[in-house]
Amino acid sequence: MNNPYNHITMKKYLSFIVLSILLAACSNNDVPAFTEYGYINLNIGTNPEISVATTRTETIYPEADDSYLITIKSGDIINLNKKTYGLIKSTPLRFIEGTYTIIAESCISDDAETANNRWGKARYYGVQDVNVVVSQTTDVNIVCKMQNAKVNVLYDETFKNIFGKDPENPYRVTIYREGKQSRSLEFKENATFDTQSAYFNILEGVSNKLIYVVKGTYNGKTVEKEGEINSLEPQKWIKLTIKATQTGKIELGVQVDSSVTEENNDFDVNPYA
Q1: Could you tell me if residue 215 is inside a domain?
Q2: Which of 77, 144, 178, 217 makes an SS bond possible with 124, Cβ 3.0 to 4.6 Å?
Q3: Is 4 among the domain residues?
Q4: What confidence tens digit (pLDDT) does each residue in 207-228 have?
């Protein structure tokens, strides 16, 4: 015959076991509860402004391209490694409470100089720290700015008229980073400020000086002049204008930011030498 008292005791015992398991699960720090998470709503913009001769202000930044690379890390721990912006921009990102560093970049540093047959491309970069709070969504707006320098060459009509008379020996400008002639870029006769741009990273531990060599033919003789650009800085557009006088002298004008630095170290040519 069943004892009702034993049945009630067994029920209480089983209830105690279940309650003990639940309490143990709640106290397990290795499995964080959902309330320990916060969210990041990420928005990446690009500042296309480049400092040139005229000053202009951009107040509205267009959204970054979907191909931008996003890295999120906490200290030395990388939580998200170079994921494309297009894959993550539409959904809030969930992270455990803490401080995170978010990096957005249009390309990695090496690609900024090796792309487009080594002429390079503009590299945009932005970084911001964010605190993730439990059960809250934090809006993070990062504006990426150009990190490298852009260089263009323009041949003035005075130069074309004197050095453009020998089609078999076309004039040209060769430019390279000091000590890095392995990456020499040649601007040909059709170069303008709107075409054939070269991009150079701003590097640490190496020279950020550019060397350029102008070469042409005047009255059957080769004329060569070397110059330097010392103003290699992020978000700067360097415009190199090549001019000449009727005597065959080459005049070089370097236009950077809102100022023009004239390098009047004329190279004299004696056709009878």
Answers
A1: yes
A2: 144
A3: no
A4: 999 999 999 888 888 888 888 8
Asked if 216 and 163 count as a contact pair (C-beta separation under 8 A), the reply is yes
Regarding whether 155 and 136 lie in a shared domain, the answer is no
Q: Cα(177)–Cα(201) distance, rounded to whole angstroms? A: 10
pLDDT digits (tens, 9 = 90+) for 60-106: 567 888 999 999 999 999 999 999 999 998 889 999 999 999 999 99
Could you tell me the two tokens for 217? Answer: 């033919």
**Residue range of the domain that includes 225:** 149-263
Local structure of residue 148 (DSSP, 8 states): S
The whole-angstrom separation of Cα 67 and Cα 108 is 12
Positions in the chain short of pLDDT 50: 5, 8, 12, 14-33, 52-59, 254-273
Sign of CA dihedral 74, 80, 81, 82: negative
Which amino acid is residue 203, in one-letter code?
Answer: L
Q: Say whether both 138 and 165 belong to one domain.
A: no
Cα–Cα dist 246/114, whole Å: 39
